[in-house]
Amino acid sequence: MGRDWSYLHILLSCAPFVASCAYPREAVQCLLNVLQQAMVPQDESFSGHLHIR
Fold first, then answer.
1. Which of 6, 16, 35, 36 has a CA-to-CA distance to 42 between 20 and 30 Å?
2. Residue 25 in 3-state DSSP?
3. Cβ-based neighbour number of residue 4 at 10 Å
4. Model confidence over 23-45: pLDDT tens digits?
5. Rounded CA gap, 12 and 34, in Å?
6. Contacts within 8 Å (CB) and 24+ apart, 24-28
């Protein structure tokens, strides 16, 4: 799980830069895909916190 979060952190860190550059649409789409994967209920407390199904 730690690896997934570090990957998510890296992507979130890069996203504003990518969005401000040339591909805001692709950056948003990529973010949505990663967030969808992150919301898969692996951690009960995390999925319970978001309460998104």
1. 16
2. helix
3. 14
4. 667 777 777 877 777 776 655 55
5. 9
6. none
For residues 6-32, average pLDDT? 71
Tokens of residue 21, six digits: 């550059």
* Residues 11 and 31 sit within 8 Å (Cβ to Cβ): yes
20 token code pair: 């401000």
Q: Which residues contact residue 26 at a Cβ distance below 8 angstroms, ignoring those fewer than 6 apart?
A: 18
- The tokens describing 18, both together, are 């990518």
Other beta carbons within 10 Å of 27: 19
In this prediction, residues 6-33 reach a mean pLDDT of: 71
Distance between CA atoms of residues 53 and 47, nearest Å? 9
